[in-house]
Amino acid sequence: MADKIVVSGMRFYGYHGALPEENKIGQRFLVDVWLSADLYSAGTSDSLDQTINYAEIYRLVRNIVEGPSFKLIEAVAERIAQVLLHAFPRADACRVKVVKPDPPIAGHYDSVSVEIERRRSAAYIGLGSNVGDRALFLKQALEKMDATKNITVIRCSSIYETDPYGPVQQSDFLNMAVRIETLLPPKALLEEIQRIEAELQRKRKVHWGPRTIDLDILLYNQDNIDMEKLSVPHPEIARRAFVLKPLFEIAPHLVVPGINRSVTDLWQGLDQKEGVRLWKPNNGEGKFGLFVN
């Protein structure tokens, strides 16, 4: 069971709501917050700098609830979770409950409330390009990911030149893999990387065809995800050398959920390793350790 810091029953007066009178007159709001964090060091050292400051939690929540209005308490809760996770890197996850004790709706009830949980997640993204200035497209995709709210690029593999996969005749690809940290849930993360693909003129005219940039969510924590437009782990992760080779470089001991085999095991057991050649090593120079002559 994860350690938690809980600040409950916080009371504020704010102006959130979909009705004009809610924005003008305002009303009471109650907020509970749970932050999951490893508190062993705080407990054994009795040191304030090893924990999360409760007064700072209260101040940040108060600034949001008593600040500019939102139409929905869902948006209030989302904002609280994002701000607290950004403010306290020690926290792994945040659960927020926002209560409206006196909503302007008819009926007999105690209150209405919203409760959400957000966590700091690790995801691995595969990148590929075989149109135009391939390295430039990879660089721009990395920069756009790192500049996206709630996404931080943590580690990049080297760049590999790879033979095209599938039946379509086309130019060789440049491929790489990156580890990111994100506060976005999987569907929202997919929407953001698809936005980046669109900004870099990704066209989806031919299946397995040429592309300026291809961004795939390979892994998201240890989650198995099966949505209409998203399957994680990536369904082809165990069969594609151009995915496994850069992933092996940055996360060799990572266990792929569902398959329950490490990346090293999958790479070493792959029959077809040909067609993947080191194009530019990550030597630690530049922002991402790449793209520097």
Structure description:
Pfam families: FolB, HPPK. Keywords: ATP-binding, Folate biosynthesis, Kinase, Lyase, Nucleotide-binding, Transferase. The protein has two domains: 4-119, GTP Cyclohydrolase I, domain 2, CATH 3.30.1130; 121-280, 7,8-Dihydro-6-hydroxymethylpterin-pyrophosphokinase HPPK (Alpha-Beta Plaits, 2-Layer Sandwich). It has helices at residues 20-25, 40-45, 54-65, 73-87, 134-147, 186-199, 241-250, 263-268, and strands at residues 4-14, 27-37, 91-100, 112-119, 121-129, 151-156, 159-162, 173-182, 214-220, 225-226, 231-232, 255-256, 261-262, 276-280. The chain is of the alpha+beta class and 293 residues long. The model has no long low-confidence stretch (mean pLDDT 91). 28% of the residues lie in helices and 30% in strands.
**Biggest sheet statistics:** 6 strands, antiparallel
* Averaged pLDDT: 91
Beta-strand content bin: 25-35%
Helix percentage range = 25-40%
EC number: 4.1.2.25, 2.7.6.3
Family: Belongs to the DHNA family. In the N-terminal section; belongs to the DHNA family.
Catalytic activity: 7,8-dihydroneopterin = 6-hydroxymethyl-7,8-dihydropterin + glycolaldehyde; 6-hydroxymethyl-7,8-dihydropterin + ATP = (7,8-dihydropterin-6-yl)methyl diphosphate + AMP + H(+)
Protein name: Bifunctional folate synthesis protein
